[in-house]
Amino acid sequence: MRSKAIGILALLSMVASIGVAMAMWTESLSVQVNVNTGEVNLDFDAWCVEHQEGPDDDIKDVGSCDAYVTEDEEGNPLVVVDIDNAYPWYGFTVYVRMNNTGTIPVKIFNYTYTITGDDLTPWMNCTTNATQVQIDPYDVNPDEQVKTFYFDCTFLQDNSSGQVLPENAEMTILGQVVFAQWNEVTGPIQGP
């Protein structure tokens, strides 16, 4: 009987110790994280200004330049520049204004272009101010929301080989500039 009493007493001690452990007071914290991703979105505007350089700085008013924004087949913005009746020393400057209407700062990631028709680039002297700058959305920095880049070109009379700018030539340059969120772009602009 005594061993039964010791067994019962041991069993009661174990149950009591479990009860003490079960009587521990607790408090818990739940965590909910809501994530909304940002958006890369730019609006574009473009225009063209004519000029003439070289031996005679008079604009002949026979060439024309027009620049505008439309959409390509996939619905992406497309800046179209039409140059008509270009001649030696005819020049033009295309301005492209970019307005960051998204929520994420962007930089130019890379660019590509293809030329179809007559390649007149050996007779073109072009410069640009397009550098690796950050274009901020309005709520991040209103002063850096809009950037205007220019591409300035002049048709030369002779190329570096001494060949004269060909008459009745037609050239199409199709380019693409890719913008990405600022933290993914390091180093200079990548291009051909």
User: What's the mean pLDDT score?
Assistant: 83
Q: Unreliable stretches, pLDDT < 50, 5 or more residues? A: none
Task: Report the portion of residues in β strands.
Answer: 35-45%
Shape: rod-shaped
Q: Helices and strands, in N-to-C order?
A: HEEEEEEEE
Question: Strand order within the widest sheet?
Answer: 1-4-7-6
Question: Which structural class do you get from the secondary structure elements?
Answer: mainly beta
Beginning-to-end CA distance, first to last residue:
97 Å
Q: How would you characterize the largest beta sheet?
A: 4 strands, antiparallel
Question: What is the number of E strands?
Answer: 8
How would you describe the overall organization of this protein?
The protein is mainly beta and 192 residues long. It has one helix at residues 2-22; strands at 42-52, 64-71, 77-84, 90-100, 106-117, 124-128, 146-155, 171-181. It has one domain. The protein has one helix and eight strands; from the N terminus they run H-E-E-E-E-E-E-E-E. Strand 2 and strand 3 (77-84) form a beta hairpin. The mean pLDDT is 83.
State the gist of this model.
This protein has one helix spanning 2-22, and strands spanning 42-52, 64-71, 77-84, 90-100, 106-117, 124-128, 146-155, 171-181. With 192 residues, it is mostly beta strands. The chain has one domain (42-184).
Keywords:
mainly beta, two-stranded antiparallel sheet, 40% strand, 192 residues, four-stranded antiparallel β-sheet, rod-shaped
Layout of SSEs?
Blueprint: H1 2-22, E1 42-52, E2 64-71, E3 77-84, E4 90-100, E5 106-117, E6 124-128, E7 146-155, E8 171-181
Antiparallel strand pairs: 1-4, 2-3, 4-7, 5-8, 6-7
